[in-house]
Structure prediction request, 327 residues.
Amino acid sequence: MWKKLRPLVRGAYRIFGGLRGFIYDFQRYLRFGGWREDLNDKSLRNYKLAMAYHGLEKSLSFKNRKPNSGWSNAERVYRKLKVANNIMNIGFHDRAGKEVLLQFLNLPANKKTKRADEMINDINKFNFKDDFQNHGSISFNSDDYCKGVLKNPENFFLSRYSLREFQQKNVSPKEIERAIKMAMKTPSVCNRQSWHIYHSSKPEIIKKVLKYQNGNRGFGDQIPELFIIGVDLRAFFVGQEHYQHWIDGGLFSMSLIYTLHSLGIASCALNWSQTPDSDKQLRKVINIDKHHTIIMMLAAGYPNTENKVCSSKRKPIEEIFSQIELK
Ligand SMILES: Cc1cc2nc3c(=O)[nH]c(=O)nc-3n(C[C@H](O)[C@H](O)[C@H](O)COP(=O)(O)O)c2cc1C
Prediction:
């Protein structure tokens, strides 16, 4: 009897756990998601600006752009920049948006229009400066692309293993910054860059954090560097984007694993598929911003000369690869 019931009870328990997780995520979306239309809030405005000016950037990057395209995005950017200028609480995307909009308005076809004239006049009176980082569109030729070609890509990709026992030596802050800066080149939806990386190399903090993580048994006490990768829920406004933070955060995490690997620093992802209770408890002991959803943790450090790793062989490619075909 119990044998028959067991899978049912287990299934029900799992469904209940899933439901609790969904409800918790939904509550967080309600409390912290970017669905509010409050342009006075610097973070909300900046994410919305990124979406609007990215539309302009795309329009500027097409070789054969339609002469009248982009104006609705230009108006959106302009509206948000006016709010930014009024309250003078300026963020990165405010500055970038200003530069992209000016580039758009100064296109020969646009410059002649009355509306461009009005906007340019107004923007030139704004009290905040561009950040002159070449926002908008830039030329990038095939030689530039080819700088990324690796002589032996297999050497790079196939030499990464999750490492769980590290040399007892810290990675310098400079190397950590370098790895994070390179990982920041990760693509993100509309270039919103919603990620936030928390880091510690203090054993007492790492120990406290890992108490709430269930996959570090046997090696958690020897981790030299610990990262927590979070994503800002305010960056996602449209209802359909409710899973986007996991995607953007996952992509960033993978990039960080590879940038660390490129510097000879090994790592092991640590899942944050935890219960709502664990998530709440962790937030009570460390400074995770309430708007940030924790995507995962990452243990990192230098490999020992001799290491043992799980071989974790991959499936045959035929099992995971198909051509897309019409039904
Ligand atoms: C999101 C994610 C979470 C993971 N969580 C854990 C974990 O909690 N503990 C652990 O020891 N390994 C964890 N891993 C590592 C996987 O076990 C490992 O990547 C997988 O077995 C493949 O091995 P490889 O990374 O050496 O190629 C995680 C990996 C990912 C991508």
